[in-house]
Amino acid sequence: MLEVKSVTKKFGGVIANQDVSFTIEENQIVGLIGPNGAGKSTLFNMISSIFPPTTGEIFFLGTRIDQMPAFKVAPLGISRTFQNLQVFKNMTLIENVMVGQHIQTKTSILGAALLLPSSRKEEKVMYEEAMKYLQFVGLDSLYNHKAGSLALGKLRLLELARALATKPKLLLLDEIAAGLNHKETQEMSELIKKVRDTGVTVFVVEHDMDLVMSICDKIIVLDQGMKIAEGTPKEIQTNEAVITAYLGT
Ligand code: ADP
Ligand code: MG
């Protein structure tokens, strides 16, 4: 589904990713881990075409995407959440989800943000569909509340609902469980598995090792921009290079 080929990203003198290669198979949950500054978010930014690699190539379902603008990549079926929340706090929950739907149908960011449905009928269909995504993450009873009134755990669920509303084939989750308590983290794990069971491939950056080890089919490990290991949770837990990178010895 996704092929990252020899990708390098430089920011001036900083090498954020160096010669990173891997593939992601359809219908899996794949984890991306590594110490702070390892280049995880940078890799996500390139896969979602926020900026291009310095060198290397990225293919999604056979199409080369690394030189495409983000608004053309999203409709191909790649959606994401951000490490720093990107919800619209003055909008209601359902309006936030509808922004996601507009990104999918209109490919116009301006149209999406202004919520301009082309007809009443279209608006009604989208409203009902948006409710289904809120239901999926368990926020439907709060649909009419302002996003700004939600606590962090629920904001992260809202981000997930909005990302799902773009109907992705590949969903990138950048630290979706950061700051969540133990119970919320467990619920998020279950939800991520439920997303995968609906046929969506999930690529997660996550610091919570229990979460990563329990839900991932495969884990890719970055350290200082380089891929140092790739394998099943079991293989990664016993990998010498990974242990060294994490313990800093
Ligand atoms: P991670 O998500 O693994 O913590 P990042 O991908 O955010 O790591 O960062 C990797 C490196 O690239 C860091 O040294 C960071 O400072 C640098 N970096 C990331 N984004 C930018 C940017 N837009 N401009 C300059 N440097 C950046
Ligand atoms: Mg990051």
TrEMBL record:
<keyword id="KW-0813">Transport</keyword>
<dbReference type="InterPro" id="IPR027417">
    <property type="entry name" value="P-loop_NTPase"/>
</dbReference>
<keyword id="KW-0067">ATP-binding</keyword>
<protein>
    <submittedName>
        <fullName>Branched-chain amino acid transport system ATP-binding protein</fullName>
    </submittedName>
</protein>
<dbReference type="InterPro" id="IPR003593">
    <property type="entry name" value="AAA+_ATPase"/>
</dbReference>
<dbReference type="InterPro" id="IPR032823">
    <property type="entry name" value="BCA_ABC_TP_C"/>
</dbReference>
<dbReference type="GO" id="GO:0005524">
    <property type="term" value="F:ATP binding"/>
</dbReference>
<dbReference type="Pfam" id="PF12399">
    <property type="entry name" value="BCA_ABC_TP_C"/>
</dbReference>
<dbReference type="InterPro" id="IPR051120">
    <property type="entry name" value="ABC_AA/LPS_Transport"/>
</dbReference>
<dbReference type="InterPro" id="IPR003439">
    <property type="entry name" value="ABC_transporter-like_ATP-bd"/>
</dbReference>
<feature type="domain" description="ABC transporter">
    <location>
        <begin position="2"/>
        <end position="249"/>
    </location>
</feature>
<dbReference type="Pfam" id="PF00005">
    <property type="entry name" value="ABC_tran"/>
</dbReference>
<keyword id="KW-0547">Nucleotide-binding</keyword>
